[in-house]
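Both lines are quoted verbatim for reference:

——
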Amino acid sequence: MDVFGSGHEQVVFCSDPGSGLRAVIAIHSTALGPALGGTRFHPYADEEAAVADALALSRAMSYKNSLAGLDLGGGKAVIIGDPRTDKSEALLRAYGRFVESLGGRYLTACDVGTYNADLDVVARETRFAHGRSVALGGCGDSSVLTAFGVFQGMRAAAQHRWGAPTLAGRTVAVAGVGKVGGWLVDRLVEDGADVVVTDVDAAAVDRVRARHPGVDAVADTRALVRTPADVYAPCALGGALDDETVAVLAAQIVCGGANNQLASAGTAEALRRRGILYAPDYLVNAGGVIQVEDERHGFDFARAQARAAGIFDVTLRVLQAADADGVSPAAAADRLAEERMRSVGRLATIRLPR
């Protein structure tokens, strides 16, 4: 793995044998500001897989924060382990001390496997933990506005493809109905969509169907991607769109909350060749970082939601630019994000701790 060739400013390996902490913090860019990105707690197969995920996720955060109009760079942390059995106060506090040692170059928040209560513990050791519990002055569950932003991106894709910004009467297939996917289903049902879901956690499916008895479910993702639908919404882990999936996907639009949905650099073009409209993941799922960034200024949900609503306009702009330039929406989104980073004039600047 060519870490030095990845374009990252800094990669930090964090080890605390006493608590069992093994973590990687990747800072991709501080061109626009301190690097913001969540902490993922996951049982990676090996250290190389953890590093690869941290590098990919942190790079995506740079682009996400840029397109969202935030004065923030991109970073990400991964903790190696099973959050159900390995998470402890000692481990989270040890991790918090590593975050603090970076002096504000990296701002952390929640991600897969971490929750507001976990960030409350991390914050006992660092000033740079966000996405904390409402009771402690935080913004609470960022998955609420993440799902709201995905819904806005999906409305924009519907406008671009079918001429109306609504999913009413459309079938939406949602893969993964945990935090973000569950909230997204609520929005879709409210909008009048027909929804079919799947999740590796049967309890998550049961919770959704208890709220919305009209929602259908299939056994697994392999069945879901073959289910005729207007929109496919990947809302679980990354790599959801590989060559095999794209070849059989029975949907006209892909728009979901998962990070790093494209398994390879050529996947976006493969979707375009099949006539499937792709709403770039790091664009439409930016509602969460907008919510977390707002917390830094004294959280106001209405203000954060109003800003997240702007994802509709940016998505529409990206899709229109892709058509005008004859490129995939992923390429068009990258161009817009890179242009903003360049225009600030500090692309090569290393942001120092304060």
